[in-house]
Design goal:
6-stranded parallel sheet, binds adenosine monophosphate, alpha/beta, globular
């Protein structure tokens, strides 16, 4: 995939109506935004467009509204809701909760000028507002997933969206792995470029994968091997060292013939792990697995009693115990691997980090990245949250805004929301 995409700076925007896809999927409670981080992150692109005289039409999804009443009833029934609750009125209320109106208000505050809110996505309200925009004006469409065609990438919806604008800007990396109407489809009908957020994601991660400074170390954790099959396979083509932690490490240990007790185990993936270990050896890639582990006798929360640690070789993990975090020696080993690196990519926790007693491995990796002078990239989700909670965010080169999208990037997949943009 070509990562060298045109950005807002490579296209004339003055006087043009620019449809800009952002990620305003912010957390809200009773209609109040509880974190405006994603809105703030979109400001550089919006401010650039305003300053350069564009007529800006912002759009985003929020949450997972179900725009089809029958499907909504079916889903709610599956969730065990009583039939008398499944009225059109309640469906409309559930949809209304996912309005982007609070986002328009916050955008107005941040921009210091009114951001007009349309009451629909491609209906009369949106069309009228879009047509009335003057240079430097900004409006926001309603939640794009209120339209059935959005997640289906319906060309009809894309055409309607495109008819309101002259240029499409994608600045939502978090949804770039989805081929939806506002993330990719609309680019079939308009010149399409990226915003600053997407540009940063693509240039940093693209460079790390295509032309990394070496040694290049990737650290993978999280629950299951099966979720990361293609990531492991693709990274083995690129890295000098692959570090494995988290629940997925135990299937690798089992593949080495070690007893893993009650630890997470993906029986169907043992052969795959063997194959990956052989591939690493053939390619001269160092594959690091835990040498010791924290064990418990039940899935924790809370943990009571002493926390135990054991080595993992042979049958050292007792048959009735489960591995919940990497142990102290492994923490040191992984810290050293990061220390030796010039490029580091990290995705997934090293243990059941939600429980503070079992978060030491994840913290150690976050600390290693924070202490490192290498280019350090954290791929969204839990690992990103861990870095932020620990206050390490400004010590990491890049924390991706997209968990799923960054994982697909590491898999070497083409992201539809990026592939659809014009090459430089
Ligand atoms: P993922 O979504 O694949 O990144 O997985 C994240 C989840 O993996 C977190 O909720 C962790 O609690 C869980 N996890 C990490 N290590 C382990 C482990 N050793 N056993 C069970 N779950 C784990």
């Amino acid at each position: 995939m070509n990562y060298n995409k045109k950005s807002v700076e490579d296209i004339a925007v003055a006087g043009k109506r620019v449809l800009c896809r952002c990620d305003f999927n912010v957390p809200t409670k009773a209609g109040v935004i509880t974190s405006d981080k994603r809105i703030v992150a979109a400001m550089p692109t919006i401010e650039y467009l305003v300053k350069n005289g564009a007529r800006v039409i912002l759009c985003s999804h929020m949450g997972k509204p179900e725009p089809n009443f029958e499907k909504w009833v079916k889903k709610q029934t599956e969730k065990g809701k009583a039939p008398e609750e499944l009225t059109k009125e309640n469906w409309e209320k559930a949809m209304a909760k996912l309005t982007l109106a609070p986002v328009a208000k916050r955008l107005s505050e941040l921009l210091g000028k009114e951001v007009k809110m349309a009451s629909d996505v491609v209906g009369e309200s949106a069309k009228e507002l879009a047509a009335s925009l003057q240079d430097g004006d900004v409006m926001l469409l309603e939640n794009t997933r209120f339209e059935k065609g959005e997640t289906k990438n319906d060309p009809e919806l894309s055409r309607k969206l495109a008819s309101m604008a002259d240029i499409f800007v994608n600045d939502a990396f978090g949804t770039a792995h989805r081929a939806h109407a506002t993330t990719a489809g609309v680019a079939d009908y308009l010149p399409a470029v990226c915003g600053y957020l997407v540009e940063k994601e693509v240039s940093i991660m693209g460079k790390a994968l295509a032309d990394p400074e070496r040694p290049f170390v990737a650290i993978l954790g999280g629950a299951k091997v099966s979720d990361k099959l293609n990531v492991i396979n693709n990274l083995l083509e690129k890295v000098d060292t692959l570090v494995i932690g988290g629940g997925m490490a135990y299937t690798f240990l089992a593949a080495k013939g070690y007893g893993i007790g009650q630890s997470l185990f993906d029986a169907e993936k043992v052969d795959y792990c063997k194959e990956m270990m052989a591939k690493a050896e053939a390619k001269g890639v160092k594959l690091l697995l835990p040498v010791d582990t924290v064990i418990t006798d039940h899935f924790p929360d809370p943990i009571d009693g002493e926390i135990e640690c054991c080595t993992v070789d042979a049958d050292k993990i007792p048959a009735d115990k489960m591995g919940m975090d990497i142990g102290e020696k492994t923490r040191e080993l992984y810290y050293e691997a990061v220390k030796a690196a010039k490029t580091v990519v990290w995705n997934g926790p090293m243990g059941v980090f939600e429980n503070p007693t079992l978060a030491k491995g994840t913290i150690a990796v976050a600390q290693a990245l924070a202490d490192s002078s290498a280019t350090t990239i954290v791929g969204g989700g839990d690992s990103a949250a861990a870095c932020e909670q620990l206050g390490f965010a400004d010590k990491i080169t890049h924390i991706s805004t997209g968990g799923g999208a960054s994982l697909e990037f590491l898999e070497g997949l083409e992201l539809p929301g990026i592939a659809c943009l014009q090459d430089k």
